[in-house]
Specification:
561 residues, alpha/beta, Jelly Rolls, 12-stranded mixed β-sheet, elongated
Amino acid sequence: MPVDDHAAAPFTLDPESLAKLDAMRDAMLDPSPRRIGRLDQWGLADTYEVYAEIAAYRELPITMSDGTQIDAALSVPRHLAPGQSCPTILMPAPLVDIGRRAYLGMFPRWALGGYAVLAYSQRGLAESGGDIQVAGPRDVADGVEILNWLDGTQGVDADRIGCFGASYGAGTSLLLAAEDKRVKAVAGASAWGDLLASLYQNDTRHIQAFEALVKLFNEERCSKEFRKIIDKIRSNVIDDEVKEFARVRSPRHHLKEYGADLPILMTTYWHETIFSVPAVVDFFNHLKGPKSLLVQIGDHGNGELAGMLGLISKPTEMTYRWMDHHLGGSAGDGAKPQFGVRSEYMHNLLSDVSHPKWESYLLPRKRFHLAAAPSGRPDAPMSQGQPQPGWTRSLQTTGQETEAVAAPQLIRTGMAERMGMPHLYRTAGIDRDQVLIWTSTPLDQPMRVQGELELRVTVKPKAKDATIVAYLMDCDPATGNAAIITHAPYTLTGRQADEATTVTFPLQPAHYVLRQGRHLQLIIGSHDRLFADANTSPSTIEISSPQGAESYVDIPLGALA
């Protein structure tokens, strides 16, 4: 099956949306009837007429101590009484060509809520000078200098500053909050928790997402340090230098700095292909202060984009409530923010499930034992009950993709899922030499997968190193078509050829509803363009279930409430 290698930017905008943003900007810079009137085609003229009456907008460079100029935009409420100040939102840009202009649609809501706003593009991004630092120490230092600049801005309440960011801006916001206590609340959409876990999941390079991010950064604008890291990751050199580069850029490694007081809201996606969902959940679980986690249908950046354009989205509506509650503004709808875990389940956009914490969100896991394939049949059963030792199945490594891939297209496959059109996998037609499949009996009632999954298998490659990729599918026996529930890769390195190793690893967490009569289907393959594999091709990998280390998949499965 051909897989599109076009890596769409997380916040790629169509020409109509870009034209809309340009018209917004023109009206904010020059709120004349003619410019505001241009927005009437999108039904926004009244909104920006009100905005011009209540807030003053200007664009300006802010010069850093090393002379680098950071491109920024400032909005401050008009008609403040002498000495009056207001809560302020700092918004570092997402990773997109237009930088901080991606947030223009949010300015009217912030202004109507009584907030000052400063949005900026991090160094090296869009119109800002300098080199791309990937939310590194220099970017954090820039954020501190921008906070210093805000301290001297009339109308800004330095004791009520919050950060909102999407993607790259989310990481920058979280790292700045760890450094500077003047940040009193954070909301990060499409956030990351651990950068190394995102780039190197289960010892497997997340190569397609990595190359997509490098392309978005524009390699020519990257710092010398980052270009060295790029070369190492491409060459599969994950050494101490790479790990340290990722560590200082990972909110997970700054937990002590957040303490027990900083409120943090984060959003992610079940089928996130850019940043590791387990790492986001791990970071969330270790936070001690007020916290909220939203997990949605789709992929990186899918949910918040509408809200950033001035429409309604869960991530931005939750952000307005979050900041109102903690900073005292009124940008939201007056409702209190939700703490704990909130999620949608695949593939119902109207679903909304809430739990006070991750632990209470999880369903108990049920163990499905993997068995041998019956004589004359290509696939094997998986079932609850007794372990099934003593079998071995062979997987051919050809370096060729099959129908089974985590996402045929970065970002876009998840966007289709958000629209209720999940990718259909025709698993019946996959070459069984290139994948191994286990299938459950039909479900006797509607069920839900909700929580964390784990797979254990014994792997014996004929070559020295090996990569396997596991997928859990929802298969319709009537058509042979399936939809993906979750997946994960695993790479073995530094072993001897023909050495058997039992590996136990997590699949991405999932929240998925299964209809009565459907089959759970586990597929193990050896190549997926999303990941860099370590396989020798052609070769063979044996998957087995020895006595005492029987193979299984643990699934958090329960009846549909």
